[in-house]
Amino acid sequence: MTSTKVSLSPFFRLFFSPKLSTKLTIIGLIITSLFLIIALGAPLFQSWGLIQDPTEFLDNPIKSPPGIQYLFGTTLEGYDVFSRTLFGTQAALKVVFFATTISVTIGVPIGLISGYLGGRVDRILLFIMDTIYTLPGLLLSVTLAFVVGRGVFNAALALSISYIPQYYRVVRNHTASIKTELFVEAAKAMGATPVRVLSKYLFLNVIQSVPVILTLNAADAILVLSGLGFLGLGLPDEIPEWGHDLRLALPTLPTGIWWTALFPGLAMTFLVVGLSLLGEGLSEILNRKSN
User: Fold this and answer.
1) What string of DSSP letters covers 91-127?
2) Quick check: is 52 in a domain?
3) Using CA atoms, how far apart are residues 88 and 239, in angstroms rounded to an integer?
4) How many domains does the chain fold into?
5) Contacts of 67 (CB under 8 A, 6+ apart)
6) How confident is the model over 95-130, as pLDDT tens digits?
7) Which residues in the chain land under pLDDT 50?
8) Is 14 a member of any domain?
């Protein structure tokens, strides 16, 4: 009796492969890099005349479906959906960059100090961060957006507050667990100052998990920013942004103008998927190395 060998397709081989984490990371990196190239290249494409000005009203045609002249069609107001989708990538990544930079710059040092010092300082910081962490991220961002107003940096600031506790908690817990290790005690016995111990001996050991949190936060920030834009609280109207475009497209959907919502929604989805795959892949790789 002969046995038949089942051959998996490349798609299924990918998801049953023992090197899944590496492949997920590569896929996520490719998707994220593609969006980064689009964000950086959008102004060049416009200057070369390859795409329309995303803020320019087109005289004719308006509400045109996707075609050769306008790849993604045009809106009811006469905007080119293709150019607005490309420039929306630039706006999204710019806000995400500022938001993650702010949260890492604040959360990591505070976590190091809290975990190293312990005592009353640690308890106070832990209480503050746990209080922020328990608040819903979108609700907190909406509230802060009301306070700080609209704008690229203001939106990034509103987003970053809810991410700071995540870096704090991971870094603080890791710092508290390794501050009593022999190499740390030896450094202190040799006269190393607290600043040197934190910067040279602890920082490099606790920073490994930060890239994973950063990529996952970036994916979440894309969704939250789009939510703010949908509510009219994100970026100014003159800046192309996916959430804002989805808000403008919503009333036109019943009339059959589907493309004005489809392409910004797809762009947002693919970027979030790319960042999520990158984060999950990095997490699996780091977990495998630590075991």
Assistant:
1) HHHHHHHHHHHHHHHHHHHHHHHHHHH-HHHHHHHHH
2) yes
3) 8
4) 1
5) 73
6) 999 999 999 999 999 999 999 999 999 999 999 999
7) 1-9, 11-16, 18
8) no
Domain boundaries, position 146: 22-290
112 within 8 A of 206, measured Cβ to Cβ: yes
Q: In CATH, what number is assigned to the domain containing residue 48?
A: 1.10.3720.10
Residue 232 in any domain: the answer is: yes
Query: Quick one: residue 252, left, alpha or beta (phi over 0 = left, psi -120 to 50 = alpha)?
Result: alpha
Collapsed DSSP state (helix, strand, coil) of residue 226: helix
N- to C-terminal Cα distance for the chain? 43
Q: Is 37 exposed, middle or buried (0-12, 13-18, 19+ CB in 10 A)?
A: exposed
pLDDT recorded at residue 18:
45
**Do the Cβ atoms of 230 and 244 come closer than 8 Å?**
yes
- List 74's β-bridge partners, or say none: 80
pLDDT recorded at residue 62: 75
